[in-house]
Amino acid sequence: MLREGLKMSPDEGQEELEEVQAELKKKDEEFQRTKLLNGPGDVETGTSITVPQKKWLHFISPIFVQALTLTFLAEWGDRSQLTTIVLAAREDPYGVAVGGTVGHCLCTGLAVIGGRMIAQKISVRTVTIIGGIVFLAFAFSALFISPDSVF
CA 79, CA 83: separation in Å to the nearest integer? Predict the structure, then answer.
């Protein structure tokens, strides 16, 4: 991670942010055009032109399914998952499971709530370098601190 971070340009993530914003704008415009073309339906009868949905979609939002799938696929086999596996093998697996879940929830929550602001203030390069330093710190602590030692 340190090597990747040091090789990155300072504005590496800015291009991706701009791509996502352009794609969202395009989808919003497409949605508005579709809405205008289909019309509001018959106001007097209260009917509208809708696509029939399956019953399970009433309980599960499509954005929920998309976010779940995206997060699962993005996290599968990455450094944080591998590090969690090593930590769980070395320490209490229940504590690692709870700590990993809470940590991921906090990180994802921070990304959802302040993602745009953070992306404009902190570069991907900085986050990658900090992540590399944290991984090295945990590696050294695993080398020199016994799992049985109590602080």
Answer: 6
42 bridge partner residues:
47
- Identify the residue with better confidence: 88 or 148: 88
Summarised one tens digit per residue, pLDDT across range 61-104 is 777 777 778 777 877 777 777 888 888 888 888 988 898 889 88
Q: Could you give the CA distance from residue 13 to residue 123 in angstroms, rounded to a whole number?
A: 7
Per domain, the residue ranges of the chain are 63-144
The distance in angstroms from the start CA to the end CA of the chain is 29
User: Looking at the DSSP assignment, which residues form a beta bridge with residue 47?
Assistant: 42
| Residues 125, 10 contacting (CB under 8 angstroms) | yes
